[in-house]
Amino acid sequence: MAEDAFTEHRPLLFTIAYEMLGSAGDAEDVLQESYLRWSAVDPDTVEHPRAYLVRVVTRQALNHLRAVKARREEYVGTWLPEPIRTAPDVSEDAVLAESVSMAMMLVLETLNPTERAVFVLHDVFGYSHGEIAASIGKTEVTVRQIAHRARRHVHARRRRFEPDSEATRAIVQRFLLATATGEVQVLMDLLAPDVVQLSDGGGKVVAARRPIIGRDDVARFVLGVTRATAATTRVEQVTYNGMPAARFLTDGELDWLVAFEIHDGRITGLYGIRNPDKLHRAETVRPLDRGGHQPWKP
């Protein structure tokens, strides 16, 4: 049945759409559109359903990405990807964990839609240039050139990070304790000198509209937020986008989500999402899958 084939490959299709769009909501819309197209096809006439579905989802995601690009340029404050709650096993796949991390998703935002599609399909999912050419309607030679350009761009801007693990969760736990107790020196020791704090409120709730850079300024910011909200907020440690994270709940409602980028034992980035439009889907654990392909290796 057509539904069975779509359900079987849904984790892979969602992962591709999410990495191309940076939004779980947009990815779900793409999957819905793709399913409608798939349900209109006689599955007995399709020799390779997975390849066919990947092609459909890629084309729909490309169309969707081109449509939302303009809206993101008008976004109030800093735009961050819509966070997705991931299972612990995502962190066991280093390529997948890095590809859905906040830092990588922000780098992917700097690519044009075609470059993003080519990079995601080739370097993350391991599809050949020929397979990608068939998916996006370009020649194989053109795809090869786009892949080289996109890879060079991404590698020049990627930030090293350590995926969610017992060690990184312990660092986050120490950070949360230091902010709650006001232990400034412990906090400073946990933050890298060039740490960056990014906040996404979407213009709908209070959030810093510009990046906060440097250990001193970030420490002051997080201590100030903690003092203002500690009495009414409960904190939970979780995993989002393959990264250690913390959920801040007020009266039982998710009010703030922070994902932590950690490298060499120090926090190098904090990604705080407060935009309620992005938080209301953040409770669901998303199964992610790369489909068994081997990624490209330099």
UniProtKB/TrEMBL annotation:
Keyword set, alphabetical order: Sigma factor, Transcription, Transcription regulation
GO biological process: DNA-templated transcription initiation
RNA polymerase sigma factor 70 region 4 type domain ranges (all copies): 102-153
InterPro entries (UniProt xref): ECF_Sigma-70_Domain (IPR052704), NTF2-like_dom_sf (IPR032710), RNA_pol_sigma-70_dom (IPR014284), RNA_pol_sigma-70_ECF (IPR014303), RNA_pol_sigma70_r2 (IPR007627), RNA_pol_sigma70_r4_t2 (IPR013249), RNA_pol_sigma_r2 (IPR013325), RNA_pol_sigma_r3/r4-like (IPR013324)
Gene3D superfamilies according to UniProt: 1.10.1740.10, 3.10.450.50, Winged helix-like DNA-binding domain superfamily/Winged helix DNA-binding domain
Domain RNA polymerase sigma-70 region: 6-67
Keyword 4Fe-4S: no
Gene Ontology MF terms: DNA binding; sigma factor activity
Signal peptide from the UniProt entry: none
Pfam families: Sigma70_r2 (PF04542), Sigma70_r4_2 (PF08281)
Family stated for the protein in its record: Belongs to the sigma-70 factor family. ECF subfamily.
Subunit field text: Interacts transiently with the RNA polymerase catalytic core formed by RpoA, RpoB, RpoC and RpoZ (2 alpha, 1 beta, 1 beta' and 1 omega subunit) to form the RNA polymerase holoenzyme that can initiate transcription.
Protein name: RNA polymerase sigma-70 factor
Organism: Streptomyces triculaminicus
